[in-house]
């Protein structure tokens, strides 16, 4: 599991579209697909159904809030670290 | 920032000793030192004083609870994902 892959999953869950989710992360669609696939392999199950319209699997729906919690905590850490950086630079 | 580097930082903060912290993570001391150094480079400041006795810097002390929150959230995610895996295998 990596923070980046969780961010990719959250973006896909938000857009339900590989192209738009990739664009929102400023990466290519194949790069996003690879990250999602690698996350799914590490978990051992699929997070999204790849049909004409993307939908989350039951497991994807269930894990989404946990993933959001991890990424939110990481953003708070980064913010706390960055704030100090700015203070130091001042 | 990576989950693994945050885990390394938390282990060092817990042991205040590179050798013991590395052992607790089942990695070598140089590997731990590298992870801590890379985290410090990405943050732009030091997290630990490397003297005869390791101590956390002011920034290290301040960021430790944020790091612990991220890793705890990641462990909850992994646990939620693993539980489902076990349910699926049953």
In words, what does this structure look like?
The structure is a homodimer of 90-residue chains. Helices cover 74% and strands 7% of the residues of chain A. A two-stranded antiparallel sheet of chain A has the order 1-2. Chain A is mainly α. Chains A and B meet through helix 4 of A and helix 4 of B.
Topology of helices and strands:
The structure is a homodimer of 90-residue chains.
Chain A (H helix, E strand, L loop, with lengths): L2 H13 L2 H7 L4 H15 L4 E3 L3 E3 L1 H32 L1
Antiparallel strand pairs in A: 1-2
Helix pairs in contact in A: 1-2, 1-3, 1-4, 2-3
Percent range for helical residues of chain A? over 70%
Q: Strands of the biggest beta sheet of chain A: in what spatial order? A: 1-2
Number of helices of chain A: 4
Largest sheet of chain A: 2 strands, antiparallel
Q: Please tell me what the overall shape of chain A is.
A: globular
Count of strand segments of chain A: 2
Report the portion of residues of chain A in β strands: 5-15%
Summing up helix and strand content along with how strands pair, one would put the structural category of chain A as mainly alpha
């Amino acid at each position: 599991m990596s923070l980046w892959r969780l961010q990719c999953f959250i973006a896909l869950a938000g857009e339900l579209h590989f192209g738009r989710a990739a664009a929102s992360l400023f990466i290519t669609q194949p790069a996003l697909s690879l990250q999602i696939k690698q996350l799914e392999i590490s978990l051992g199950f699929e997070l999204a159904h790849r049909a004409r319209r993307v939908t989350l699997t039951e497991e994807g729906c269930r894990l989404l809030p946990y993933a959001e919690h991890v990424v939110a905590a990481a953003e708070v850490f980064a913010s706390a670290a960055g704030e100090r950086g700015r203070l130091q630079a001042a």
